[in-house]
Amino acid sequence: MAGVNIENLSKTYTIHDQEIKALSNINLTIKDGSFVTLVGKSGSGKTTLLRLLCGLEQITKGHISFLAPEKERATGKERISIVFQEPRLMPWLTVQENMALPLIKEKDRQQVSQTVAHFLDLLGLKKFKDAYPSQISGGMAQRVALGRTLCYDPDIILMDEPLGALDAFTRKNLQTELIDIFLLEKKTIIFVTHDVDEAVFLGQRVVIFDGGSIIEDVPVPLDYPRDPLSQNFFQIREQILRTITGK
Ligand code: ADP
Ligand code: MG
Hints:
By secondary structure, the protein is an alpha/beta fold. It has 7 helices and 9 strands, in the order βββαββαααβαβαββα. The chain has a domain at 86-153. It has helices spanning 46-53, 95-100, 109-122, 138-152, 168-185, 196-202, 231-245, and strands at 3-15, 18-30, 35-40, 61-67, 80-83, 156-160, 188-192, 205-210, 213-219. The strands form 2 sheets. It has a 6-stranded mixed β-sheet with strand order 5-6-7-3-8-9, sandwiched between helices. The N and C termini lie far apart (38 Å). The site of magnesium ion has 2 residues, from helix 1.
């Protein structure tokens, strides 16, 4: 496991000599083993932050460092994995082969089979292990994408609106499953969404982005599983909505 420390982080993209400031002066510390959600309007810089965290983009200014759990030191080899809005599965591989992809170089194939079997079971995919991506639903495909990430056993899981393309029922189910997985696997999760209900349902903290900056960092001191109809949930949700809309 690992946490993250982000200091004075800025990112500017350049397109045809025009500079686009995607992030300015971000400071954020995410504790090892915590679940943080990032919310904000489209274009507020959420995806850019995830891409910087996993090294898909270069930092313009500032620092990202990884924090090791208590007593251990950060190794500089922290494993980070990202789940996108689309599952991005290999169509020619079965469900279990897709999940085993990050372990392709692993010599102990029996261990690989056991790991894959564990997550197939956890994600309710056992019956579909030999199916191809074209033969499963969108919700299942997203479960496979999550399973592939879990097989990799990362210290930090980044998720960029991973449930955004799913229908409301499937989305609700997967939100609950994600909490179960978080409680079981104790990973650090940084989850981007533009859905405030989802952010409050999942995050121990909701970090609000606007125009490339963090405008508020709201703790969610509610036990899991959360009741979206409870008064506390409602109050936190309203506070976040007011901050985002500026009302
Ligand atoms: P969000 O995920 O919150 O919708 P993004 O991080 O995708 O926001 O985008 C933040 C800003 O950076 C936007 O103005 C967007 O147009 C710009 N941007 C994002 N990616 C690129 C890119 N690869 N090249 C140029 N500009 C980009
Ligand atoms: Mg985005």
